[in-house]
Amino acid sequence: MLELKFPDGALRQYADKITPLEIAAAISPSLAKRVVAAKIAGQLWDLTRPIEGATEPQNFELINRDSPDGLEIIRHDTAHVMAQAIQELYPDTQITIGPNIEDGFFYDFARTEKFSTDDFEKIEKRMKEIVDRDLPITREEWTRDVAIKHFNEIGEKYKASIIEEIIPEGETLTIYKQGDVWKDLCRGPHMPSTGRLGKAFKLMKLAGAYWRGDAKNAQLQRIYGTAWADEKGLQEYLLRLEEAERRDHRKLGRQLDLFHMQEEGKGMVFWHPKGWVLYRILENYIRRMVEKSGYGEVKTPQILDRSLWEASGHWEKFGHAMFTCETEEGEHLAVKPMNCPGHVQIFNQGQKSYRDLPLRMAEMGCCHRFEPSGSLHGIMRVRNFTQDDGHIFCRDDQIFDETKAFCETLAQVYADLDVELHSIKLALRPEIRLGSDETWDYTEKTLKAAAEATGVEVELLPGEGAFYGPKLEFHVKDAIGRTWQCGTLQLDPSTPDRLGAHYTAEDGSKQVPVMLHRAILGTFERFLGIMIENYAGHFPLWLAPVQVVVANITSESEAYASEVVAKLKAVGIRAEIDTRNEKINYKVREHSLGKIPVIAVVGAREATEQKVALRRLGSQEQTILTLDEALLVLVAEGTPPDLR
Fold first, then answer.
1. Is 332 labeled as catalytic in the residue annotation?
2. Which segments of 277-383 are extended strands (E)?
3. Is 352 labeled as catalytic in the residue annotation?
4. pLDDT (tens digit per residue) in 171-206
5. What predicted TM-score, i.e. pTM, was given to this entire model?
6. Topology (CATH level 3) of domain 259-535
C-alpha cells in the first residue's frame, strides 16, 4: 500500500501503482477534469504515471490548471502542440528546444524557408485541430543510444545532438509522444491528452536565434506564444500587453523627448534636456535622503588597475563582463563594473577605531558592464548605468540597527515615488560558502529580524545567497503587475578582508569590518524606466521636467504671459511659454499630449485682473486664481516630498 499525505495534512492509503488521475477521480469527477498533474515529494508527476515503490508516507498534491505549476504545464503542452502543428504543415522543419518563459513559451525551429507572422493564423488553426483530436500523450523511457539513433534516422539532427551533448552514456531518458507519430525529448510532465489543453493560446512574435545561443552556430527561427488556463486569462493577458504598449518607456521616451538610444552606443542612454532634468530631480532627491541617513558622499575613479579587481575577486567572477584596455606602458586597466572596491580604498586611508563605526559611504556611481546585445532592453537593462550605491562598514553588533534603518529609508523613498514594494526576499546560504554555520545563522537571523522589525514579511530564498553572505532583495511591482528587483542590502565580510580593511577593536585587536552593500533605487536607469511606465509619462508636479506651460489666448496678453513665466521661474517652478499664433484649444491639446501637468491660460481678462486659469492634465475643468494664489499652490505641490 501507498501512504500519501495531502496538503491539509490528511494521510490516505492507496494500492501500489495507482495513478494521480485515479486518485483525483475517486475524490471528485470534476476535480479529475480540472487537474493537469500531481506533485509527489516535491516532484511534478504525470497524471497517468503510476505511483510505486514508496516505503514511507509521501507528500502529495494535485495541480489545478490555473495554479502557477498548472500554467507551466499548460504552456509546456502548448509548445509541443505548436511544434507538432508546424511539422505537420511544414515537414522539412526540425525542432530544437522549446522551454517555458514568463507568461508563455517559445520553440526554436531549423527550416530553410523563413516563417512569417502571416503563418501564425494557419499554425494556430492546426494547433486547435490537434487539440480537437484529443491525442493521447504518453511517456516512454528510452536508452541514450536508441534515442540518438532514432532521431538521426528521422532527420532530427539537432535533437540527436542535444542527447549526445547533455545525456551521459548509459543513462535513460524520457520521450513524450502525442498520438502514434509525433514525439519529443522531454522531462515532462504533460497532461494525459491534447484535448485537455483547451484553446486559450496565441502565437505572439517571431525572432531569430542561434543554436545553443552561440553566434558561431546555425541561425534558427524562434516562435513565441502564450497560453492560459482559460479564455478569460488569455484576454486579460492581451489587455495587459496593450496597456504595457501604451506605457512602454521606450515609446514614451521618444514621445516626451526624454532620451533616445542608437546602434553606435548599444546599451547607452542619450539623455535629452527634459530627460536629464527628470534624472537630476531623482538624483537630488535620493542624495538628500541618504545625507539625512548619515552617509558621506564620495567619488571613486571610473578606471582602475586589473590588480585591484583581482585582489577583490571581481576579476575572476566579472572579468568577462568588464570593459578593459592595455596602455602603451603595459598597464592593464578596467572600467569599473561596481563601486565597492573603490569604497574600501577610501576606508583604508588612515587608521579606524571601533568608535568610527558605522562608517557610511554613498556614491552616485557610474558603472559599465558588458551585457549581451540580446539582453538589452531600453533603459531597463543597459551597459552604462549609475547606481545610488552605498556601503556601510560596521561591527557585527551594528548589523541589525543599520539594516533596519536602511529598510525604513527605502520604504519612505518608495512611498514618496509612489512605487509599490511588492516583496522583500532573503537569499540564504548557498551550498558552497565561506564562514562557519554559526556565522551564517547569526547573519541570516539578524537580516530577517531587522527587515521584519519594519512591519513587513520576508520571503526566504534557500541557497540563493552569495558565497560570502546573505542578501535582502527588495522587489517592486509596476503598473501592469510585473515585478522588478531594485533595492538590495548584501552582507559581505569577504571583500574588506581581501582588500586589507580593518579597524582597532575595543580590546586593541585588529578586526575586519562587515561591509553592507546597499542600494535603494538600484540603477537610476531601470528605476526611471519603471517610473515612466508607472506614471505613463504623467508625472506628479514635483517630478515633471516641465511643470507649467503658460499659453496666451491673444497677442494682447503676450506680455502678461511673459510676466507669469518670469514669476513662476523666480519661485523655482520649471515653466515654459507658448505665445505662438495658434488657437488656445490647439495649444492645450498639444501640451496635453506632451503630458504637461499644468497649463496656465492667460487672456486679456486675466492680464487685467492679474489672474491665471489653471488646467490640469486629464481634466476639462479650469481653476481661476490670482497669480499670487497660483504661485503658492504650484510651489506647494511642486516641492519634493522630503522638502515639504
1. no
2. 296-297, 303-305, 324-326, 332-335, 359-368
3. no
4. 899 999 999 999 999 988 999 999 999 999 999 999
5. 0.80
6. BirA Bifunctional Protein; domain 2 (3.30.930)
